[in-house]
Every structure is written in C-alpha cells, then in structure tokens.
Write a structure and sequence with these properties.
485 residues; mainly alpha; single chain
C-alpha cells in the first residue's frame, strides 16, 4: 500500500526564516546559482572564446565546457561523504574560494591549455559546493515548511541561473568580452565567501571514520566514464569504440562499486540508504525531470536559432518565460507542499512539465512567440515544482551524518540526466535524417524537434507514474524501512 504524506505533516514548524535565516539561505542559494550561471554563460561565450584564443577545432573548444562538467559529476559522491567527515562549512568555503580563484585564472587565460586546466579545477570546486550547499540547507532549516521553503528558493534560483547565464552571456560577450563571463564569477564568489564566513555556523565535532577509498575510486571512475561517454557520444558517434568503451566501463565500474559497498563496514554510500523508497524513487524522478527539461531546453535553442533564425541574444530572451515561471514556482512550492503534500506536488509538477513539453509539437516553422512562451513557461514551472518536491523527499528522514551524501545524490540527476539530453538529440537526428529526402532542411529539423518533444513529454508522464505508484513517503515522525519497495 502506498503511504503518502499529508498536508498536516508539513505544518509542524513555523515557516518564517528570520533575517539571519534569509541571509544564510541567500548565501547558500547564491552558490548553487553560481554553478548554474557558470555552465550556461560559458556555453554562450564559446564561439568568442574560440576566436580569441585560437582553438584549433570545435571539438577542442567544447572541452571548455566538458572539462568543468566531468569532475563535477564524477566527484559529487566523494565530496558529499567528505563533507560529512571533515565538516560541511569547511568544505563549502574551500570550494567557493577555489572556484573564485580559478575563475580569475580562467578569465585571464592566455591560451587554451590554461583555460581548460582552470575549467577542470572549477569543476572540482563545483563538486565541493553542490552537495555541501544542500546539506547545509537541510541542517540549517528544520524538516517541514522551513526546509521546503529553503529548497524552493534554491530550485527557483537554480533554474534562473541558467536563464540569466544565457541572456547575460550574449550581452557580456557582445558588449564587453568573453573574459567577463569568467570574471563576474570572481565578484559573486567573493560576496558568497563573506556571507559563508560570517553566517554559517561552525562545524561541530565529527565522528572519526575512515574514508571508503575503494568505493570513492570506483564511484568517481564510473561516473566519469558515464558522463564522458554521454558528453562525447554525439560527436564521436554512439557506436564508436571510445563511446561504447566508456559506457561499458561505466556499467562495470558502477556495478562493482555497488557490490563493494554492500560489504564495506563504512561505505561511501550505504546500500540501505540507496534502497530507501524516498531516496531511490526520488532519484528516478529527479533523473527524468532534469533530463527532459535540460534536453528540451537544448531543443528550444535549436528551434530558435536553426529554424527561426534568432541570434544568440534573442534566443536567450526566448527563455525568459521559463525563468519567470521558475521563480513563481519557487515562491509557491512550499505553500503547495503544505496544502497538497510532497508527493501530490511532485505529481502536479511532472504533469505540468510533461504537458507543456509535449505541446511544443505545435511550434510552427514561421514562429509563434505566444505559444513558445506559454509552453516553455509551463515546462519551467512544472520542473521547479518537481525539483523542490523530489529533493525535499530525498533528504527527508535521514540522520545528520547522512545529509552530505544525500546532498550529493540530490545533485546527481542534473548530470546523469545528460542521458536524456543525448537521447533527445539522437531522436532529432534520426527523425530529421528520415525526413531529409522529402522536405527542406529547415522542415526536416523541425520534424525531428517535434518528435523529440513528444518523447520528452511522455517521459515526464512516466516519471509521474513512478511517483504515483512506487514512491512511498512515511507519515510525519516515522522513518521508512530501508527494505520497503
């Protein structure tokens, strides 16, 4: 029988955060906003970076983004566990300081090698920041309305970071220089460091525990291989030796990791935690909502630029509705969870995201701005509700010493969800190729995009079924047994 959360479960603590609480939340959310901003703003600036630093090929230039993505995805679990061992405040401040310093190095890079090395270092720092920011939120705000409100603000700013980066990247590169897309991170990072040093509580005494080194190596290597295979598969070919080798290695390494963790006395991630319904099914929902929103956002960028002929700046402005509705969803999420419960809010979010995404099948070749804004806005609104609900569920009912690794697990769907991005891109390519002989190149591309958004919408509805039938959320004050299905 499915056990659902009830509205009364969410009303056991006052929702008001207080002045210090808000300042603490703004500091932590600014860090996750910084990571989202960095990814999108740099992506927009890539052409200008390539021209200025004389990158040899487009493939080499893509490493400016990939060099940051790979270490972030592969080291999340490791740093999530390290934060539980050495202290979250320490690791958070170290990560922000390192990211800030390396942003300065990237912004002043004189050649491609220095820039890519700095980007790789930023990826390591981002892996420190992501899980510790979530863990510090769950530790700073009590489970219930306070924590839900904090996670809602974070979810909204995470989505807004992408939109601001897309628009800001176009403005900065056209009005100033691509270097300011990096140097602006220095300014934001410095402000976050001041807030973290003055507002975050000191780390308490930590229990002396050895780090699971074999688990850390296997998890990091497996995730690295997975994200590498996904990131390079489109260019190298999905049947190429490098792509297949990376994906096969990922499956083997992650399988060995799970086997090792089941026997280790102090595992990196306990198997019992992974078996908890609130953890495993929330992770699945997160994978779908991030993968389909991220993938569809890429498709919309292709639609606006390749079909409608928008400039990079106009394309960024085309995502404005997604950013605005994300903020609205973030402001409403805690109230909806308080009224409906976490699971029902998650279902509602997935439904809105799925319908908004599937409705993009009616986007025409000559453009319909109103339909574009309505459908992308619906997708953004539903996505943020889903994100807030799944992170709230995943991090609930856990011990304090599990929150670091829970924070890492809550961040991972953003990166594993790249499978969805790659899958939707493959659908576009296949459908466009099938139509190429019967219509124009523009209409063939549009046909491929239409096929992909329908699949993305259906995938969101599959996640809805997972939440409705498999996700079990215990009543207030009770923990779900790890073995429950």
């Amino acid at each position: 029988m499915v056990v659902t959360d009830t509205p009364t479960q969410q009303s056991t603590a006052p929702e008001s955060l207080g002045v210090r609480g808000w300042l603490t939340l703004i500091t932590l959310c600014s860090a996750t906003f910084l990571i989202a901003l960095d990814f999108s703003i740099v992506t927009v600036a890539l052409p200008e970076i390539g021209r200025d630093l004389n990158f040899a090929t487009t493939g080499d230039l893509q490493w400016v983004a990939t060099a940051c993505l790979l270490p972030t995805a592969s080291l999340l679990l490791l740093f999530g566990k390290v934060s539980d061992l050495v202290g979250r405040r320490r690791l958070f401040i170290l990560g922000v300081a390192l990211f800030t310093l390396l942003s300065l190095v990237a912004g002043t890079a004189a050649n491609p090698g220095i820039l890519i090395a700095a980007r790789a270092g930023q990826g390591i720092a981002a892996a420190m920041i992501g899980p510790t920011a979530i863990a510090l939120m769950t530790a700073s705000f009590k489970e219930g309305p306070q924590r839900t409100k904090a996670l809602a603000v974070n979810g909204a700013l995470l989505s807004l970071g992408f939109v601001v980066g897309t628009i800001g990247g176009g403005l900065i590169t056209s009005g100033l220089s691509w270097r300011w897309t990096m140097l602006i991170m220095v300014i934001i990072g410095a402000v976050i460091l001041v807030g973290a040093s003055t507002l975050l509580p000191k780390d308490g005494a930590r229990v002396a525990t050895r780090l699971d080194v074999p688990g850390a190596i296997l998890a990091s290597a497996g995730l690295f291989a997975l994200v590498y295979g996904i990131s390079t598969g489109t260019d190298a070919g999905w049947t190429s030796g490098s792509t297949l080798g990376a994906l096969i290695a990922a499956v083997v390494l992650i399988g060995v990791f799970l086997a090792v963790e089941a026997r280790h006395p102090a595992p990196l991630v306990s198997v019992e935690m992974l078996k908890r319904p609130t953890v495993k099914w929330s992770f699945v929902v997160g994978f779908f909502t991030f993968g389909m929103c991220g993938g569809t956002t890429v498709l919309l960028s292709l639609y606006m630029q390749d079909v409608l002929g928008y400039s990079a700046l106009s394309t960024g402005l085309g995502f404005l509705a997604e950013g605005v509705t994300a903020m609205i969803a973030g402001s409403l999420a805690s109230r909806l969870i308080g009224s409906w419960g976490t699971r029902q809010t998650m279902i509602a979010g997935l439904l809105v995201q799925g319908l908004g995404t599937a409705a993009m099948v009616w986007l025409p070749a000559d453009g319909n701005l109103a339909l574009l804004l309505v459908t992308s806005g619906a997708m953004g609104f539903g996505h943020v509700l889903s994100v807030v609900a799944f992170i709230t569920t995943l991090t609930s009912g856990l011990r304090d010493d599990e929150q670091g690794i829970a924070g890492a697990l809550s961040q991972m769907p953003q990166f594993v969800g790249a499978i969805g991005v790659a899958g939707l891109a493959a659908i576009v390519t296949a459908r466009s190729s099938a139509l190429a002989s019967t219509t124009t190149a523009k209409l063939a591309t549009l046909g491929g995009l239409h096929a992909a958004v329908v699949v993305a919408g259906i995938a969101c509805l599959v996640a809805l079924l997972v939440a409705a039938t498999l996700l079990r959320i215990p009543a207030a004050g009770k923990q779900e047994p790890a073995h429950a299905a």
